[in-house]
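Lay summary. Proteins are chains of building blocks that fold into shapes, and those shapes determine what they do. In this project we predict the shape from the chain. Here is one chain we studied, written as its sequence of building blocks.
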Amino acid sequence: MRKLIASLALGLAAFGLFGTAQAQDAAASAAAVASAAVEAASAVATAAPAQEAASAAAEAAPAAAAPTPNKGDTTWMMVSTLLVILMTLPGLALFYGGLVRSKNMLSVLMQVMVTFSLIVVLWFVYGYSLAFTEGNAFIGGLDRVMMKGVWDNAAGTFANAATFSKGVVIPEIVFAAFQATFAGITCCLIVGAFAERIKFSAVLAFMVLWFTFSYTPIAHMVWFWMGPDAYSSADVAAEMTSKAGLIWQHGALDFAGGTVVHINAAVAGLVGAYMVGKRVGYGKEAFTPHSLTLTMVGASLLWVGWFGFNAGSALEANGFAALAFINTFAATAAAVLGWILGEALLKGKASMLGAASGAVAGLVAITPAAGNVGIGGALIIGLLAGLICLWGVTGLKKLLGADDSLDVFGVHGVGGILGALLTGVFNSPNLGGPSLVADWTTVAMVSAADYSIASQVWIQLKGVLITIVWSAVVAAISFKIVDLVIGLRVPEEEEREGLDITSHGETAYHK
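And here is the predicted shape, written in a compact code that computers can read:
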């Protein structure tokens, strides 16, 4: 190498000679150039090993550190989990308890509390694994049975769960706990449809079957995907999407559970109302709520807890959590006004029961839309939910002919369907919505010009229909099995006496 550089230098020097008179000077210049070239070559030769060493060191250096959970996100998710527990116990329990007759108050509280406890245990045993691990388009696998693998022995730390932002994670145990509360309250919602006449043991047996074969598959179909970091390039995007749940693959939007929680539970409750049968005296006797005071307290606790339910579903303490928070606030208030306005127009008076029911209707309807629509869209969804769910518990209930004791389908079914469909409308950036992700590789959003309301509403409708059919079939089979093995109803004399005494040997109130 040195000889080559020196020869080139000498050649260049010789090429620059203009006459024999200058030969000596040129030779001297050439020698100087040659000497400089040799020195340069020597420096290059010396630097080469250093460059190679640096390159080797770079290759040997560890890859970029894996993302670590942000303490703020983790704290927010733990608080959200507590809020959802609050909305179930005591929120939903008191809301339902106040609506039944006093002789059945404790039976409803028991059914809610024990169902919630049962489902939380089943969730950590196998439910979380079936819902949130890779399997097929309908159900997950068994990788997290008994929560195995959430502690990474090799890394000496806890496994992380993806959020909706690239490079942002939360501890998987926190995500699993948050989702456990969703599973628990979904099953508890069903209790209201057949309250005051079902066997306590039948409730629990049904919940095991329905949770296993309806809740976990629907949760998987709607919410399971590989996470944003899996979309590392355009080449793998299609493969990653194919591993997601069926309804996610379709592109349906369900921020916090319009399909998974409300429609799923409402359909199961309606099937139960038919299969358990009507209460003794239904249509002939007055079944007035025994304590609207407790119902109002329960509705208020539901409203407070629902901020964790909806805003927590952002999985991060970010702008989308804030959007879900304010939409939950606004839509619920609008629904209260919508319901009592409808009551005033129909009956001439607005009622406390109507205001409490309107609040729940608004909370239900905004659930799938919470982080997917603008504030204006949330107000419209809430107002419509109040009016349409009022029809759901009056006109539609008469058409269906079922004794849905606490109007689970009229509020949660109708409100959930309304919210799911209107999510596709008000998600549009043309109507103030944040739009949806068009490409998870680049996290590019669908532009206002490209957003199709009709197309997204059709996608939303497919998700709704799949949920309705799936839940109805599983519920019907589950109720039939329980009826054959245990029996669904208590004897008529026990029903007349009240389930508090006959099923649990105690009363809510002592005279």
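What the prediction tells us: The domain at 71-504 is CATH 1.10.3430.10 (Ammonium transporter fold).
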